[in-house]
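Board notes (copied after class):
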Amino acid sequence: MRLACTDEGPGPAVVLLHGFPLSRAMWEPQVSGVGSIYRIIAPDLRGHGDSPAPEGVYTMDEMADDVLELLRTLHLDGPVVLGGLSMGGYVALSMVARYPDRIRALMLMDTRAGADTPDAAKKREEMAQAVIAAGNSGPVVEAMMPRLFAAQTLKDHPERVEPLRTVMEQNTARGIAGALRGMAVRPDRRGELAAIRVPTLVLVGEEDVLTPPSEAQALADAIAGARLEVVPEAGHLAPYENFAVANAVILRFLEGLDR
């Protein structure tokens, strides 16, 4: 599948995979900041943004293969720095497990390696049915918006919150249902973490209620040499919500790769 993507900036390639149910728009602070030094490639994963939304279940492996196809299209045949947030992190873990030679370094942001519990998978299916019945993304937008951001951001910074609400509302019911069902059947990758041999940054918002800092700590502990960074005044969308701190962390990590 040909994914829509942003491809901007000089230097080595840094591929950024967005969370659910968003689009590459969430990486705008990184495109304008980190992208002044590095080449930022930020695709819309299938079913999101401007990429196609076919029928069916979007497995994390299938999404990872879409990203690999995009890299081939861009003639990026060597290893790249790969970053993913939340669902994008699930896709990144699929890529590093199955195509380790294509990954130079890894950034796992506000994500986890474990599979859904049966109850969580059931709730995803119920939400998929709700958006299909509604014919739009409304049910998932209303359910997720209060949990994506830190409470203070929701209260004091509508200029950060509302643009992503619009992004979420523009995604189709079919795309959202496909991603929900794909996340519900994703494999547990905790047993694969010890095999990761590339430099790894684990980044999490201090107030993330969906994948809290304790989850990030467990992820970092399982990957040899991984570096954990907690971003203050941020929830589940740490690189977007507190981009000044997140960009500084990301740049330090990237600069360290060349030393």
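Comment from the instructor: The chain has a mean pLDDT of 97. The chain has one domain: 5-257.
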